[in-house]
Amino acid sequence: MPDTATANAEALRRGYEAFQTGNLDMLRDELFDKDIVWHNQGKNPLAGDHRGPEAVIATFVKQFELTNGTFKVELHDILASDDHAVALARASGERNGKSLDQPYAHVCHFRDGKLTEAWILNLDQYESDAFLS
Q1: Which of 63, 56, 70 shows the shortest CA–CA distance to 114?
Q2: SnoaL-like domain location, by residue (predicted)?
Q3: Does the pTM of the predicted model rise above 0.90?
Q4: What confidence tens digit (pLDDT) does each residue in 69-79 have?
């Protein structure tokens, strides 16, 4: 049985794989806690605190819709402890003649193997807002 930090890192890695392949059911049913809170910074259509698996999944669907399916993430590394996992990644996509290509950090809180809270921290929030708005 892996230690909790290793299990959290592996859960987040599986979550990224599911996101990239559009396996939103896996995220909803296996990774997300029923009371998950997802924090998106900024002033854009995806910004705010999204509560519950369905609300979080809805932001993912909207993100894909806004970018005509071009949004993707490239996972660089995952760091983890018994309570948290942090993904270091790069987001990219195209929207209305604009492009996005920037690194970000994704801070996650885990409890009992489930993702309970997440924060997306963009390198340049102004660029992200301009891209999504």
Answers
A1: 56
A2: 13-117
A3: yes
A4: 999 999 999 99
Domains in the chain and their CATH numbers? Answer: 4-132 (3.10.450.50)
84-95/114-122 β-pairing: unpaired
Asked if residue 40 lies in contact with residue 59, where contact means CB atoms within 8 angstroms, the answer is yes
- How far apart are the C-alpha atoms of 74 and 86, rounded to whole Å? 14
Q: What are the tokens at 50?
A: 């999204």
What's the order of all strands across the beta sheet hosting 98-111?
48-51, 32-40, 114-122, 98-111, 84-95, 72-80
- Tell me which amino acid residue 5 is: A
What are the helix and strand counts (H, E) for the chain?
4, 6
